[in-house]
Structures are given as C-alpha cells and as structure tokens.
Specification:
single chain, 723 residues, alpha+beta, 5-stranded antiparallel beta sheet, 5-stranded mixed β-barrel, globular
C-alpha cells in the first residue's frame, strides 16, 4: 500500500542534508527494493496530488516553500523563544517564534502562525512567525510549588513552559501546605489580563527534597514510573520459563574467559567482552550482549510498554528502567559466574586493527569477573591483585586492541570532543553537597571503542542482507552552521574553512588541545553538530566516521537495540530472508518516537541535575566563582560554573553602563563606548546574585563591574623571513 511509504518519504525530504533527487534515485537512497518501486511511485504521486511534495528542476522531488501561514505544534525553548513544528513539512522546516510573539501558546499546543520574512542569510530566505490562534491545548497538567499570598492560593509552575501562576481554590485545612510540590490541572485557560485556574490532582511532598524533586521532574516530563500488571505478568512468565541449562542450539562459550566492565554502582550488566588470538597477529573480538529479545516477545504487553518508554532514565538517585527489574537486573543481567543467554558478534582483526571478518551468533556465556572501570584500569597499570591471570591478560589485550582500533578510526576521521563531566556528591540526607570530576580512566575509552565496533559490525551485516532497520544516524553539519563556526573560530584567532570536513575539525581540536580556548572551541563544535537520531535512512554517523551504524549493545535500556536484536535472531536462525519487508513509514515513525523518548529522558536527567545543584547554590548567594562564558544572546551572557557545570545568566544591564553590540555569529558582545569585549570561552569572575528554582535559573553579575574578562591569549602570527 502507498501509505507504507508516505511518512518515510516526507521524513527523508525534511532532513537538512537532503539534496533534490528524482523519484527512482530517492527510492534507491531510501533502500526501497526494486520489487516495491511501484508502491513507492504511487506514494510519491499521492503526495504530489495533495501538494505535499513538488517537482523541481529536472523533475527532482522537493518539499513546498513556506506558505503565508503554518499550522503545527508549538515547542517552547527555555530561553523564551520557540518554534512551530509544521503538520505538513515544508522546505524551510520549523518556524521560529520570537519570545513576544507566542500568543500565549504553551509547549504542545496546536497553533496557527502567521509567517513573515526576515531577509536572506547565506542565499536562503529566513522566516519568523507569530502565533495568531491556539486551536487545541496540548498540556493541561503542570508541576509546581504551592504558594499562598493575600488570601489567594496559587501554583507557581516549574520551568518555562508555563510562566504565569495558576490560581487554585478550595485547598482546605487538610490540604497541601505552602512550599509543597503538587501537580495541578488547568480547568480554565486565561483570557487577556487573567490568570489560569486549576485544581490540584496530586501532592508530591515538600520542595527541596531530592526524592520529591525527582518525582516532580518525572511528572513534568510525562515519564512512566510504574509498570502495568500485564507487563509485569509477561516479565514474570519469562523469568519462570527461563532455564539457563537449556541453551538449545546456542553456541556454548561458558568455557571462554569473558568479563564485564561497568561503573561501581551499576546493576544491569548488558555487555561482556572476550578475545581469542589467532595466527599471524590476528585477534577475534567477541562482544556478548544480553539476549533481551529472548525474554520480551514481540507484540506482548511487555513489549508495548518497553516500546512506549523507549529508554531507561537515569537520575542521580533513581532509575526508571525500560524493562521491569526482574529482567533488567535479573535474568538479562550478565552477572558474574552465572549462565546467561546472549546475542554475540565476533569481529576478526589483523595486526593493524583492520576488520577481516564478522559474524553473529546466539550464545550462552558465563562471566568470569565483574570489574569496575577503575579495577580494569588498575590491571592495565600492572596491579592484578584479586583477579586471575586469564582475566588480567584479557583486560590488557582489550586495551591493546582498543588502541589499534582507535588509531584506525582516528585515521578515518572519528571525532573526540574534550568536554568536562562531573558527578554529584550527596550527604546522608540525600542532598547535593559537592561535585567532582567523573572518572576518566582509559578503560572507559576501551569499552566505548569496542561497543562502537560491535554496533557498526551489526549494522553492516544487516545492510549487507538488504534489510531496512533502525540506524543511529548523525548527519554532517549543515553549511550555515559551518560558516557560523568558521566565523567564531576566526574570532578566536584561528582559521578553518567554512565547508568543514572531519579532518578540518580533527586538526582544529588537536591545535587547541591543552590551551585556554580549548573548552570554547569544543563547545562551539558540539553546537555545530546536528543531533543524532534513530531512522531507517541510509545515512552514516558523522562524528564516528561510520558510513553505517546502529545501536545493538544496550537492549536492556534502549528499544532500538531490541529491534535490531530481533533481526539478528532471524539471521542466526536462517529466517531473515523469509521475514516480510519492513513498513518504511512505520519504521520511520518508530525511529522518531525512540528519538523523542531519548531526548525526553536526557532533558529530564539534566533538569533534575540542575534543580539539585540550584538547591545547593541557593545557600551560596553572594559567593563568587570564575566561570566560562558559554553563550551570547541579545539579553545577556550565559556563564558556566566549571565545578557544577550549570549555566547562569548575566543580564545586559549588569555588564555595565555601555551600548552593547551583540554578534551571536562570532559569539561576542562589545561595548561601543568602552570597547570592552566579552566572548564565548572567556573566563569571567562572577557573583551569585540569586537562584530561581522554579524557573531553573541561576542569576549572576560580574564580580566587579569594571573588571574585564580573562581572554585566552591569541596565537601570534610568525613573520616570514625575507629571502
């Protein structure tokens, strides 16, 4: 049926990197089999007849231009502006809505927006919009803090999606108290000049308590924190039916030495590693991944719930698992000294770390040792107390192989950004008291490198079989972003071409390594990248320099990995060719859903982290720290605390009495009268002026209004000697 391809075609044409193609060329790019081309062509015709795609030069397919109005869903940004995501994709993409033009729309609202031209940039028309009508409200429940003032009860919502208080009535003497966290449902949306009215539907507990703030973030992001009885029943049945000694036709690898390496507080061990040496310096890597597909039947209640969640969510003091813990921490976890079922990929390498052969198999293993990253690093450093000679030799061989693989991937253009990461420290009352740099042991890199190899090997195996599957794609930076990065780097005293290649970025990263401007450059490059996503589109992974990539190594916590495992199961059993072709539109939608779930989880994790840090910093108002400028906007500078990795805002008036010229492209602000300049990457001593926990804002001021930022020294040009 043509409907199978409609969504996939629109998704493909909406991507930034799409270049107009004729229908048959597009079908090949999308991996449509020749036998299915007739159905694909019918879908294209249906889209053309509806005006959702148009034919351009030489009959190439394109999305239509931006119209005079857009109907879509409004998405607010924490910094005040927002975007309307069109119901019908157009060539321009999402419509930018300035802070003052959202018409009272909230994230998730269905709206109509008027479109206005802003001029051209890089030869392309730039648009802005204004919300003129809200056709349907998307969100009615909000999380916030209950307050009481002048006889009126109201809830001050958390975050920036809702910026006005919500009036509540009939709280009652037995009801919640001021400063409690609650969930409120709006029953009356405001007219101009009014406040919305709502009712409290759930009490969460006193604000500022880590457990309560965690639940508040869970509710705010619409995350699921309980499993249905049907899903739990499926999980229990799978556990009851599991007999580790009944391995069927699986390869028995229990005699081989394999190990798991994870953080010290990990409970779900989903990957194990083994190595065998061959002749001529060859080595075969075995990456063994918990066989979740054995326990989660496709289409069951458990599968439906896992698909809806999409991913596990990792908070500082709590985990929301994708699967019930009797699976994720039980029979699916590759615990030490117990038989566990796996999907395994075996990759043979030559002495230079080049891939010679790949195969996949269903296996049963027994982990010889559960190691932490630091324990594994100690083995690499020569400390082998507490582990066998075989385990120690395996860990050292893993590190050696990872170095050879790393050298090969670096040569291919793999990018390594050097950005800090910290771990929050809690006291006995579960309150944040400090933050420390995360463990940077090389064994983290070892595991990451081997997992990347396994993911890539599985993706190439499935691609070689001609199957559509969920890939992990990461498009190259778009040209406009490359030009902006080039302008910023020139402002830092260096030069790179605007048409960026991976080699250009590698050389830039190497040039600034260890220098004061390194953080700013790494951050600017990260912001240049497009976000990675799940999609069946045949696009590689830019940052990993991989032409074909998927996620295979974490099916306990990521649903896309589980879908890949099911295809590998069919391959191992010789039934892949008999499986019906995937519905491209359905697979595209699944990829979009999994991408959204991953981003929602990440946003929730970051928000709770910021809330807990703000709770700590609320007791440090008036204290100063040296921060790094990470953002420049028309209303102020964002400065990050290197200790806590949280951004605070210095508003323009607090920079001093001057006329400030903002150049967001070069990432700098310049005072017209004084000539003072603030630039992304500059270090600046700031004072904590206030904390707004409800708005998730840290308010800063320069420690001394007249003090200039500490700027990384520019690299002086060497004069050429005359002959």
């Amino acid at each position: 049926m043509p409907e199978r391809n409609v969504g996939a075609i629109l998704k493909y044409l909406s991507s930034r990197e799409y270049q107009p193609l004729k229908p048959r060329q597009l079908a090949r790019q999308m991996g449509v089999a020749e036998a299915d081309y007739g159905t694909f062509r019918d879908a294209v015709k249906r889209l053309r007849d509806a005006g959702r795609v148009v034919l351009g030069v030489r009959n190439a397919l394109m999305l239509p231009q931006m119209g005079s109005s857009v109907v879509g869903v409004y998405r607010a940004n924490p910094r005040g502006f927002g975007f309307v995501v069109p119901e019908t994709p157009n060539r321009h993409g999402d419509l930018f809505i300035p802070p003052e033009a959202n018409g009272g729309a909230l994230t998730g609202d269905h709206v109509v927006a008027r479109v206005m031209k802003r001029g051209k940039r890089g030869g392309e028309m730039v648009y802005r919009g204004e919300v003129v009508k809200i056709t349907k409200r998307g969100e009615s429940r909000f999380v916030g803090t209950l307050e009481h003032s002048e006889g009126t009860w109201f809830v001050m919502p958390d975050g920036t999606a809702m910026s006005t208080p919500i009036v509540v009535r009939d709280v009652g003497a037995a009801g919640p108290k001021p400063d409690e966290k609650v969930v409120v449902e709006i029953v009356k949306y405001p007219q101009p000049g009014e406040l919305p009215a709502g009712v409290i539907v759930e009490r969460l507990g006193p604000g500022g308590v880590t457990e309560v703030e965690t639940v508040a973030v869970i509710r705010a992001h619409g995350l699921e924190d309980t499993f249905s009885e049907a899903a739990l029943a499926d999980a229990r049945s799978a556990v009851d039916a599991f007999d580790p000694d009944d391995a069927g036709g699986r390869e028995d690898l229990t005699a081989q030495t394999v190990v798991t390496i994870d953080p010290p507080d990990a409970r779900d061990f989903d990957d194990a590693i083994g190595l065998t040496r061959g002749s001529g310096g060859t080595v075969t890597l075995g990456v063994h991944i918990a066989d979740v597909s054995h326990f989660v039947g496709e289409g069951t209640a458990l599968d439906t719930e896992a698909r809806r969640r999409g991913t596990s969510v990792y908070f500082a003091r709590r985990v929301l698992p994708m699967l019930p813990e009797i699976l994720s921490n039980g029979v699916c976890s590759l615990q030490e000294a117990v038989r566990r079922f796996c999907k395994s990929v075996f990759i043979q390498y030559d002495a230079a770390g080049r891939v010679l052969a790949t195969r996949a198999a269903e296996t049963v293993i027994r982990s010889a040792k559960r190691l932490t990253y630091r324990q594994a690093q100690a083995i690499c450093d020569g400390e082998t107390t507490g582990c066998s000679k075989k385990v120690a030799a395996l860990v050292r061989d893993m590190a050696d192989l990872a170095r050879r693989i790393g050298a090969r991937r670096d040569q291919a253009g793999m990018l390594h950004l050097d950005l800090p990461a910290v771990k929050l420290l809690f006291d006995d009352n579960n309150r944040v008291v400090d933050a420390v740099a995360e463990d940077q042991s090389y064994t983290h890199t070892v595991i990451e490198m081997l997992m990347v190899e396994a993911n890539e090997a599985v993706a190439r195996l499935l691609e070689g079989k001609g199957r559509a599957f969920l890939r992990r794609i990461h498009p190259a930076p778009d040209p406009a972003a490359g030009k902006d990065l080039s302008a910023f780097i020139r402002a830092c005293g260096r030069k790179i071409p605007s048409d960026l290649t991976r080699k250009d970025i590698q050389q830039l990263l190497e040039a600034v390594r260890g220098r004061p401007e390194a953080y700013a450059v790494n951050l600017a490059i990260l912001r240049t990248f497009q976000a990675a996503e799940y999609s069946p589109r045949q696009i590689g992974h830019f940052a990993l320099a991989s032409g074909c990539y998927c996620h295979f190594t974490s099916p306990i916590r990521r649903y896309p990995d589980l879908t890949v495992h099911r295809l590998i199961a069919e391959h191992c059993r010789g039934r892949l060719d008999d499986r019906p072709p995937e519905d491209l539109s359905a697979l595209t939608q699944l990829g979009a859903d999994c991408t959204a779930a991953a981003r929602r989880a990440e946003a929730a994790e970051y928000e709770l982290r910021d809330v807990l840090v703000l709770e700590l910093l609320a007791g440090k108002v008036g204290e100063s720290f040296e921060g790094v400028i990470t953002g420049v906007t028309s209303f102020g500078l964002f400065v990050q605390s290197p200790r806590y990795l949280i951004d605070g805002l210095i508003r323009m008036p607090d920079l001093g009495d001057d006329w400030w010229e903002v150049d967001t492209r070069r990432g700098q602000v310049r005072g017209e009268n004084t000539g003072r300049r603030f630039r992304i990457g500059d270090r600046l001593v700031v004072r904590i002026a206030g904390v707004d926990k409800a708005r998730r804002q840290l308010n800063l001021v320069p420690d001394q209004a007249a003090a200039a930022p500490k700027r990384p020294p520019r690299k002086r040009k060497k004069r050429k000697k005359k002959d």
